[in-house]
User: Fold these one by one.
Assistant:
Number 1:
Amino acid sequence: MVIDAADDVKPTATMKFLIYIPLFIVFQLIGNWLKVFWDLPIPGATIGMSLLLLLLFIIPSNKGITASAQKLLLHLPLFFIPAGVGIMNYTEVLKQDGLALFASVFGATILCFILAALFTQRLLKSEDDADKFCESET
């Protein structure tokens, strides 16, 4: 009796992760190409991630992409190291405009928190209204 090892191989979480990581890179490359082709003022990575978001609206329940993204999020702080090191090249700008930069970043963060809270509150209210409407129909 001949046993074929390929029949017993099931994709592990790591194998699925390695399959979907190139997908993220392809979307970033497409975004960079679109940025250069149309001379857009938006970073290519942002365009690529927006295209990936559109794909996720088309194929909403892709567990492989979700699992790969969650693995990347575990290592998210590592992606900030190059940006933190790059800031050191702008010490003169930080000395000159550091307070204004801090105030704008702090203000924008507070504004985002407020908008996110209002948006969440509105979503929860609309869900409650939908539940009440469904209950009244029955």
Number 2:
Amino acid sequence: MNQKQRDELLLKMQEEDKRRDELLLKVVEENERINERLQRMEEEDKCRDELLLKIVEKLKELEVDVKELKVLKEEVNELKIRVDAIQEEQKRQGNTLTRIEVEHGEKLRALLDAFKFHSEKLQNHENRFEKDEKLIDKNSNEIFYLKSQIQS
């Protein structure tokens, strides 16, 4: 092989080395970009894991809240039953009270009628007593006059 061929070969090798170096540089750059993306993905995964942990905690809290709500619902149902019973008792007592008021009203009316009757009767007796007193006074005056006539 002569010098020229060697030089050409050397130049080809240098060009190939240069291309290889450029390709290697591109591979290194691409590798760095991939590493950066991988690191970002790992950070994102870490953030997602933290978010998932928070979500799991919130779900546990919600489970507790749901259990508490079920207990509250049962208590509300018990209160509704009690309120219904109280309303029923109140209605029954209202009916009893109405019946008692009607009965007492009738009795009071009878008492007031009797009181009115006795008042009228007393008034009649008073009127008769007044008449009788006037008559007695008149008779007493006449007797006194007659006695005085007899004695004179």
Number 3:
Amino acid sequence: MIPRVPVERVMCEKLLTLDQTESALRAAEVMTEHGIGSVLVSRDGEIIGIVTESDLVRKVLGQGIDPKGVKLETVMSYPPITIDEKEMLEQAYKLMGQNQIRHLVVTRGGAPCGIVSARSFMESIYP
């Protein structure tokens, strides 16, 4: 059972952003270094997409492509699916299921302020 709490209570506030021209390898390095499963992708300072561990595995490594030569703009998911920080965790769960994704960008006043992931659900149920 999903706890009835707002997304803001379980979201990760560690938002890391890379430019769309950065490589898939750089995204993997950043995720590893910071212990996270996704990075936001920007163009001219504006968030335009998200790259997840799953994107890197399915779209790059699983295809036998060298991640050094792949730009994030070619493997990112866009536009990122978002949810307001005040929405309930159950709504986040539904959005993930409907869109077959494991990461949602959390917004405050329309601007990104965090990430909620499938891992967030597990940590909210089994702290």
